[in-house]
Amino acid sequence: MNLSFFIARKYFFSKRKRNFINVISIISMLIVSICTAALIIVLSVFNGLEGLLRSLYGSFDPQIKIEAVKGKSFIFTDSLSQAIKSVEGVDILTEVIEDYAYVKYRDADMVATIKGVSQNFLDQKRIDTAIVSGELKLKENNINYAIIGRGVQYNLSIMPGSDIYPLQVHYIKDVQPGSIDISNLYSRRNILPGSVFAIEKNYDENYIFVPLDFARDLLDYGNKRTSLEIKVTEGLSIQTVEQRLSEKLGAEFKVLDNEEQHADLYKLLNLEKLFVFIAFSFIMAVGSINIFFALTMLAIDKKKDISILYAMGASNRLIRRIFISEGAIISLGGAALGLVLGGVICWLQQTFGIVSMGMETSVLENYPVEMKTTDFIYTSLSLIFITLIISYRPAVIATRYNSLENL
Length: 407
Hints:
The protein is α+β, with helices and mostly antiparallel strands. It is about 50% helix and about 20% strand. It folds into two domains: about 5-60 and about 265-405, no CATH class; about 60-260, no CATH class.
């Protein structure tokens, strides 16, 4: 066993003349353990929220989305369709027309996002598990059906599956100045509400899926599309297919995977996680100041032992290592306890859901947590760094008691 660590361990477990040094050491260890556990829990909650967002967006958004670099829409031609379908890994190509529209149902009305999709959208099976009412369909017997969000259903008091009242969709046209014909100001189409989906509040309260030809006629888009959504062949890498599409389509189109579609959100989430880690690291540093006082008082209490070690030939380096090791025992001992405590609390939350969201939600009932090995590693490294800084000054003070007068 290392000599400095051996002596430091003896100092930690031995009874001292001044009992308050033991008390301060124990308090320091408890503070470090609590801070460490809190940091692990908070980081795990951030991981859980990130995982939740990825799962939500993964069920609503496509694996790969193609948009125009300039402008809101682009011309969709047969040659473009063939070029995309010729790329290895493209399984399903769905055409999309998306825009805002004024929606009315009986006496209620609102502004919603109309998303027209081609029939093969249902083959992607992205929202199959999110249907909470009605039958999932876009067209049946030449009749158009809408798939509406649950928030839209509540706002308009829609009865899905009912053929009595249609959903009236109005779209304001880009009218030339001087026009006095009111019929030219907007277009209107009726569609039956077929089913209701529930994914996430932002989607549920805004989106209505309709057949592509319905949206094309309502919005007068012709052969223009706002985006194309692609499902990748199972077993192939999404990033590989994305790169192939980018090379094929050139600089006129943006090819985005699911994470790139929400790049700003994920960057913000990671930035918040970083600031939380830094803030808690400062809190741990402040809590570790007690270690500084404990080691300083220990150096005063053990000045006779230090003088004896010097008389036996000990060097300043050995004395410094003894007190740095003592600080490591207090700090890393508390850290180990905190890591275990934080891990246990996260495991209990994952397994039993001890803390609920506190509200009714279709997404999940309990706060999501996800433990990552990197969080444990970075927390441990930050504690080691803090321990070295906190322990160095008391270790230097201990080297001053090298005189025989202390014997």
